[in-house]
Amino acid sequence: MSTPTTQAPAGTHLASALRKARWRIMPLICVLYFIAYLDRNNVGFAREEMSRDIGLTATAFGLGAGLFFVGYTLFEIPSNAGMHRFGARRWISRILIPWGLLAMATAFVVDDVSFAWVRFLLGVAEAGFFPAVVFYFTLWFPVRERAAVLGIFVLAQPLANMLGAPLSWALLTLDGLLGLHGWQWMYLIEGLPAVLFGIAVPFLLTDRPANARWLTGAERAALENAIADDDARVTSHSVRSFMSALASPTAWAYAGLNFGMVLGIYGLAFWLPSIVGELGDFGPFQRSLVVAIPYAAGACFVLWWSGRADRTGKRAAHTAGSLSAAAIGLLGAGYTLHLSPVLALTFLCLAAIGIYTAIGPMLSMSASLFSGAAAAAGIGLVGAVGNIGGFVSPLTVGWLTDLTGSSQAGLLFLAAALALTAASVWLFARHRPEGDTRLALPTTQESSR
């Protein structure tokens, strides 16, 4: 490992390398995640029209929506192994093309069985994209940068729902064009960008800093040294292989915490259009604008909160605080749903703020557990178990909606799950080095020496 001769050049080279990496990597990755989130969640906007045309009950819809995450979970860890072996360019391209084709194939489902199968296969195709990107970030950004970088990345989630709502509703108005339903046009048009970007990604991404011709030699060395130093300080020295990470109790603990957080993410995402439908007699486009409001509120706070988690080093506290706010928001929305539409919408905004600001700090903790092959396995495990929540959540909310005739019970279920997760994060992670990076890393002044 090379050692800089003076402090100033090393700091300058590292800052320059990070600035170039952000501008080179983040816009493309965020666009890809925007497309991913649009393709997996647009089913919520199509629910009413598609259910009417092919005869789906709320429970059947919830099952089909959730089966995406069964396929995703089963293939997430093997997919991350492929990412580690073959590199980001080839592997993310491998993920994008089949997922885009299957997203488009959703336009041709004819009943609950075909809907369930295509959702399952879409999950198989997309498996590993999110943890692959999280792992990819560990190769490019030091620990103290990761919550903020992940915050930028997950900002695509609320933006996809905020912008995707009016886009999806607009595409639904194409009903009858060329003999296709509006929801069929929505799936066809929104699935195509994944295929096109899948073709382009091998030419646009760089696997590791060592391969980056767009960095100077000094910048590459400074960035690689910073990441190596962080790995030496923070990651577990006893867990280095792919299989040992899968057996790590700490990785399983973070997987359980991620499961609780994902319950809230997808419970809100899949059912928010239906919940908003209970707030008033809205037309389709009006409803899309109302649905966008909570996501816009969430998007406003993601970068600030993730950056604050990095600056203070208190990742566990920031995660627990966000999840607590989300639980309060969902609880309040559940109790005011049929009493005050304005108050219920305000609580839904609080829920969205809490859910989306929790993601960056939460994932930055699990991403800092290991390095190398162990990191690929650990991040894949956390994502795989977490995404089981994406199956449990819509199915449970759908069942409760059929049982009670209202979204209220589902909101209360999600609130309880997030409150329990917030308490668990606080009790488990706040005294761990990945949960409070001040316990493991030197001060900024010390780290620059």
Number of helical elements: 17
Helical proportion, percent range: over 70%
Could you give a short account of the major beta sheet?
A: none
The count of β-strands is: 0
Oligomer: single chain
Helix and strand element order: HHHHHHHHHHHHHHHHH
Mean pLDDT: 81
Structural overview:
With 449 residues, this protein is mostly helical. The chain is 81% helix and 0% strand. The protein has 17 helices and no strands. It has helices spanning 7-54, 58-86, 88-105, 112-126, 129-140, 143-154, 156-172, 182-204, 217-234, 242-246, 249-277, 284-312, 315-336, 341-367, 372-404, 408-429, 444-447. Helix 1 (7-54) packs antiparallel against helix 2 (58-86) and helix 2 (58-86) runs parallel beside helix 5. It is globular and about 60 Å long.
Keywords:
single chain, 81% helix, mainly alpha
